[in-house]
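Entry for the shared binder. Reason: the reviewer on the internal report wants the predicted structure included alongside the sequence.
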Amino acid sequence: MKKILMIATGGTIASVQEKGGLTPKITSEEILNYIPDVKKYCKIETIQLFNIDSTNLYCKHWLKIKDCIKENYDKYDGFVVTHGTDTMAYTAAALSYLIQKSPKPIVITGSQISIANENTDARDNLLNAFIYASNHKATGVHIVFDNKVILGTRARKSRTKSYNAFSSVDYPEIAVFKDHFLIFYIDEQKPKDGPVFYNKMNEHVFVLKMIPGIKPEIFEYLKAYYDAIIIESFGVGGVPSYGNDDFKKAIEAFVSEGKTVVVTTQVAHEGSDMEVYAVGQSIKQELSLIEAFDMTTEAIVTKLMWILGCTKKQKEIRSLFYTSVAKDILF
């Protein structure tokens, strides 16, 4: 029987109703008591790493989760991380870059309703997470939620309240569950040269969403605080000119200081293609901007944080960005 480590971080799955709203209070051991059937599938030990709302979870917590997995990697056959849904996709993507080529499964799950509630999705999600983590085919970083197994670099929270909160963006689900029976759609190859752990991230990355009439002066302001900007452009990817070249000059000034600009789309599916329209083609070619193509914003953000933690050289940044990690970019 497989030995799985559950790493609890808080979130709705661990929350109780208090005067000020839902607050994570339920411990990892208490969470396990709600799914007694899990004993049929695996042996479990737990670590309460922290117990916070995932809104408050960011780069330093991703590194702590990575450290916990690294320290315990040889002791267990797989890992299940319980997590709030609001930033779960960011954590899944971050762990995909911090822990690469893992032959062992690293599963992130949570719920839309507390596990203590009578009507909740938490028990099914958590039981399925352990079933997947115990399967001999399981490998790498995935989210298990609402009977779906989603690649960590392809997940996005697409609904705020419904049980089917997560979507796999522009990539098929790896597997599904039918009454806790696991059905694989894709057999992923287990890496033979991993895992590879990374220890640094640069969190000075900003997402700038284009809106009609936005002013180019924003780049000058952001320059003092950020090493990289991700432009969420309109449609397939374009930067406005408004009858002048102020935007081009602003981006050029930002890049000239050794900083990075990546262009993506704010549209949920099908990715960017800056070659289609003149508003995208010219600025991409003239300024040698990086284009994100079919990557999710969550993956772009965390990949840049990982890359900038590894190097400051623009050629290396570009090369690493276009190197596919866990199927994050398939252009």
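Summary line for the report: The domain at 2-197 is CATH 3.40.50.1170 (Rossmann fold).
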